[in-house]
Amino acid sequence: MSLALQIRDLHASVGSVEILRGVDLDIGFGEVHAVMGPNGSGKSTLCHVLTGKDGYEVSGSALLDGTEVLGLEVDERARLGLLQAFQYPVEIPGVKLSELLREAAEEWGADPEATLTRARELAERLGATEFLDRSVNDDLSGGEKKRSEILQMAVLRPKAALLDEIDSGLDIDAVREVAAAVEEMRGPDLGVLLITHYSRILRYLRADRIHVMMDGRIVCSGGPELADELEAEGYEGLRERLGLQPEPTPSERRPSDFFTDTPFDF
Amino acid sequence: MLALNATTVEVLNRDAPEPLARRRLEAFDLYREIPPPSDTDEAWRYVDLDVDFDTLALPEEPGQPLKPGPFVSAIGDAAGRVVVVDGYTVSVDGGDTVRIGRGAERWERGAVPSLVDPSVDKFAAAGFAFGGDGVFVGVPAGAVEVRPVVVELQATAGGTISFPEVTVEVGENAEANVVVVYRSPDGVDAVVAPLLGLDVAQGARLRFTTVQLLGDATVLVAHERARLARDATLRVGEAGLGGSTARLDLGVRLEGDGSSAEVVGLYFGEGTQVLDYRMVIDHVGRSTSSDVLLKGAVEDHAQSVFTGLLRIAPTAARTSAFETNRNLVLSDGAKAHSVPNLEILCDDVVCGHGSSVGPLDAEHLYYLMSRGLSRDRAERLLVHGFFEEVIERLPSDAMADPLRREVDERFGAAQAAGRLG
Description:
The structure holds 2 protein chains of 2 kinds.
Chain A: E1 5-14, E2 17-27, E3 32-36, H1 43-51, E4 57-64, E5 67-68, H2 74-80, E6 82-85, E7 92-96, H3 97-108, H4 112-125, E8 135-136, H5 142-156, E9 160-164, H6 172-185, E10 191-196, E11 209-214, E12 217-222, H7 225-241, H8 255-261
Parallel strand pairs in A: 3-10, 3-11, 6-9, 9-10
Antiparallel strand pairs in A: 1-2, 1-4, 4-5, 7-8, 11-12
Chain B: E1 2-3, H1 6-13, H2 18-33, E2 57-58, H3 70-73, E3 80-85, E4 88-94, E5 99-102, H4 103-108, H5 122-130, E6 134-139, E7 149-154, E8 161-162, E9 165-170, E10 175-183, E11 191-192, E12 195-200, E13 205-213, E14 219-228, E15 233-240, E16 245-254, E17 260-269, E18 274-283, E19 289-298, E20 303-312, E21 319-329, E22 335-344, E23 349-358, H6 362-369, H7 375-391, H8 400-416
Parallel strand pairs in B: 3-7, 6-9, 7-10, 8-11, 9-12, 10-13, 11-14, 12-14, 13-15, 14-16, 15-17, 16-18, 17-19, 18-20, 19-21, 20-22, 21-23
Antiparallel strand pairs in B: 1-2, 3-4, 5-6
């Protein structure tokens, strides 16, 4: 039986900077996996590359329920069942969320009316009824935007959901609400990849597996207890324990680094 | 056909009431003095208007009225309906709380002052010299009529120029709603140069919507002037869709203290259309407010021009004035010029202006496509959303749905023909 998402040796770079350096990940149906890691470790890039954002040079493989999605257009991937909840969803004035869902349903070959009826039911459960008749993300608070993102997932029913830092910028009540919404979505036909910076959301959301990403690779995986360990020792502690060299990001390089990177050949 | 010359003025004046005859004679001198527009005039900088006043002529009689289209049909319950064909008012229906009459008849009862200055350009002068018919809408003080008076301005004869005049006078504390629809069949190379005057008395409210659906060979040069007395409110809506070149020269004068005007408009240019907007808002009274929002799209080789000016007189303390012009440029060959200006001669004001010209937002497109919408569908939805802000604020609700359909159809056609990008 195929996995919701099977990622093999995924590399991605922007220009000459390699951001993902060989990511492997297996997410089964019914499972929720959390990918944690410090800033700049490549977590968000992983989401962008899987969704199909422009601007990355990509190699490797990403199978969605057995179908290769790398190389497909953004909308094709979505229709196959790969959806992302964005960390910073854009505001689209003039386009109501209900219109977006109606158009999406038509495009997916679903019944638009039935889809909107289900959207209203789900919105009620998520306390997001009024979002449907408002412009997409327009005038929504940070927490409301994330709830709106989760609502879209719940309505469109993907096979794999990529949740990119859906807990960032939220107060504790909002984190709890968003976590509850994700729990609500959990089911045997869905695999969830949850990107997060903090272990906070994992107090309210049961992750089956936790992966730590550093310098563009998954450096360590484990059960829910890994989040607690990380909380205790921090990313730097884990780095030391695993014996990983700290890798400076390009912006942190000092001029002298370039000399060691490219030794002069006299 | 009647050429634009002294003999024609004489012919027109043969049975005309004295004030109208005098206006024509005075304006004819002006008409002869003023040169035709040229692209060296700042006011015509972006518009290369190919109009030869020597070959154009007035139609001697109106052509057959056009059958009502989707826009006029969308207005169910109207307070009155007027049809003007080739400059002649051919039918006037209704008029109960609102007085509606032919312009020509109104002159019989004395001079009908126009808010348009005939010296503004050759078209306006010609309008004063050779026009005289059209429609007069008068709302008595205190009368409230929310149903629209529908005025159709049609052109049916090629090679002609016509000067329909629409005069709206809203009495003190009265309320009125007027919708003007311009139409001509495709291929009719006529010039329509209307004179529109809106006089809104103290405490009165006027909604005034123009929908321009002229055919692809018709030129429009419209002069529209409004004057607002104390605490008067004006809402202007404009939709520019048709014509080969269509120019709206709009001037709103906020004369009375506490008066306010809202101007919203949309345009969608295709082919080689030129859609040209000049909007001058004059704040004269104290505590006056204005808000201009104009949004447009151009594709293929179409061009749009927005020249806006907010002029705040030294007397206009506590004024708030905003103007915004947003443009979607959908094809490489299309162009949008956007020039918002402020002229503020008073300290105690809140003013702002904004303008943008560009393609559809790539981030928006990415977001919609990440929900599974095809590129075509996502673009269509974004264009629809772009115009929605204006459509929702139009002073005539009845025009909203036909305009949504028209915009969708135009964009869909451009997509299907591969003209985008």
